[in-house]
Amino acid sequence: MMRATVTLVTLLSTVFLPWQVTVLCALGAAFVEPLVPVAAGLLLDVLYYVPQSGLLPRYTIGGALLSIVASVVHSRLRTRSM
Amino acid sequence: MLVLLVMRFATPSFFWQIASPLFRVADAVASANHYFLGSFGDAARVAIENDALRNMNETLVTENAALTQKVAALLLLTTGTAQSKSVATILADVVARPPVSPYDTLVLAQGARAGVVLGMEAFGASGAPLGIVSDVSQDFSHVLLFSSPDVRTAGWVGSQSVPVTIVGAGGGALQVSLARSANIAVGDTVYVPGPGMLPLGIVGRVDDDPSSPSVILRIRPLSNPFSVGAVTLRATGVHGSATLLVATSTPR
């Protein structure tokens, strides 16, 4: 339930709230669901990224990196608690 | 998420048809919040501001009518007719804008079906240019704002029309690096090319480092992209794309 709520709030924030709030939500969500940051990053870029801006799709890249870090930390914590 | 990604690039119009109602709801929620929070403000101060704005509006309407008459008189003198050549303009609702949009882009509810093409220029309610159409689908389009990070636009600044390169700083902000000897001050107007010189913004601050031969001008745009509800799209013939444009001469 907690995971679903956090995921939904983060994804909806890409449409309803300033992007800074989405980034904060994704950071918080990474603690409970490591894949949320990459999903939020993808959604931000899908909605707003324009290739002509000359920038990299930085939110997908940042989200992916954060998800990798969160996944590693999660797996370590799970191993330790076993 | 991957389904959304595939849908976005394979059928962009369908994707935006699904997404736009969500943005409309977000707009409605934001407006409701604005009015609710505004109701806590000082009513007397708001009434005074309202009166001042109403007076200003009446003055501007009068000035506008006078200018329209002057334009008609000049057209009559130069072309023999009081009708100007019609320039195709498209009015488009803004579906998403900064700060929700992180790249300083606007999503518009008009696309190729309404005649929107790449390179058209978007103008705010005050007639100030905002950015360039840089992505068009059947029913929706994206405008890359001049304030988008690292977007460079040629322009002019000040009463001497000094050629400059305006660089987007993100979050609706713009900046220009200029030689100190240009003597640009706070309040000077910044222009971009269009039909003639179009006012883009006003110099809000001048960052002056004594150890550097140049100064950095922080520019406040005339049209606030954070609150824009609709834009006018016009093909000015200036922008093929929103990348670097170099001003080599000063128009007179």
Structure explained in plain terms:
- The complex is a heterodimer of chains A (82) and B (252).
- In chain A, α1 (2-16) runs antiparallel to α2 and α1 (2-16) packs parallel to α3.
- Chain A starts with a helix and ends with a helix.
- Helix content of chain A is 77%, strand content 0%.
- The mean pLDDT of chain A is 87.
- Chain A is flat, with a radius of gyration of 13 Å.
- By secondary structure, chain A is an all-alpha fold.
- Chain A has one domain (2-81).
- Chain A is built from 4 helices and no strands.
- Chain A has helices at residues 2-16, 19-29, 36-48, 58-81.
- Residues 241-252 of chain B have low confidence and may be disordered.
- Chain B is built from 3 helices and 12 strands.
- The radius of gyration of chain B is 20 Å and the shape is globular.
- Among the domains of chain B are: 2-38; 89-145, Rod shape-determining protein MreC, domain 1 (Thrombin, subunit H, Beta Barrel); 152-230, Thrombin, subunit H.
- With 252 residues, chain B is an alpha+beta fold.
- In chain B, α1 (2-10) packs across α2.
- In chain B, β7 and β8 (173-179) form a beta hairpin.
- Chain B has a 6-stranded antiparallel beta barrel with strand order 1-2-5-4-3-12. Chain B has a 6-stranded antiparallel beta barrel with strand order 6-7-8-11-10-9.
- The chains are: A mainly alpha (82), B alpha+beta (252).
- The A-B interface holds A 14-20, 39, 42-44, 46-55, 59 and B 1, 4-5, 8, 19, 22-23, 25-26, 29, 96, 99-103, 105, 107, 134-135, 142, 144, 148-151, 241-243.
